[in-house]
Amino acid sequence: MPSKLVIQEHPSPNFGERRDGARPDLLVIHYTAMATAEAALERLCSSEHEVSAHYLICEQGQVFRLVDEEMRAWHAGVGQWGDVTDVNSRSVGIELANPGTTPFAAAQMAALEALLADILARHAIPPERVIGHSDMAPERKIDPGPRFDWKRLALQGLSVFPKEMEGIEPDEVRFVQDLQAFGYPETPLEALLPAFRSRFRPRHHGPLDGLDMTLARDLATRFPIDHGKLTA
Description:
Blueprint: E1 7-9, E2 15-17, E3 26-31, H1 37-44, E4 55-57, E5 63-65, E6 71-73, H2 87-90, E7 91-96, H3 106-123, E8 130-132, H4 133-136, H5 150-155, H6 172-182, H7 189-200, H8 210-222
Parallel strand pairs: 1-5, 3-7, 3-8, 4-7
Antiparallel strand pairs: 2-6, 4-5
């Protein structure tokens, strides 16, 4: 991890006030799905496209601040995490320059780790509230995708990763309930399972199985979105 985080200012016009006095208590990671970082930077700073993020991290580890964290960037769109439906007002958004088909560069990941550590500390955001775009919008988004190394972040306390537990028989209703207890929105299994696996069992396919169940149960048990409402 870099010893010092260097951030370049590159303001985007695409932002507004956080609504109802909201403060950031979520962090959403994206990939740009564009060919180059330069193209992504241009789009995120174009008033014509009405999209932005607080930060963009290039493959070489350059970090651009596009929107001040005090403001509401336009990165999340329609989606939900727990009871948060206006994710833009409650989150910091980080875009990673990546087309979605290649590994994330070492320098880029190191810069992300430094930035995450800084943001989480300043806003007192717990690691379980660092999520992907596909977590909050599993029916329409797939980023940051199966190539993103969530376990690496979890090992540094910058996100979370589930532990395997004793085998549980596949149960679609129970699986959905457990993931909702962790924070995922109410979503049909055909969209929820791929989103979950993209993050926690990358490149695994097939019907719901016992390992999916144990991982979802661990997330619901250790990181419930509402500590007063654990699933039975």
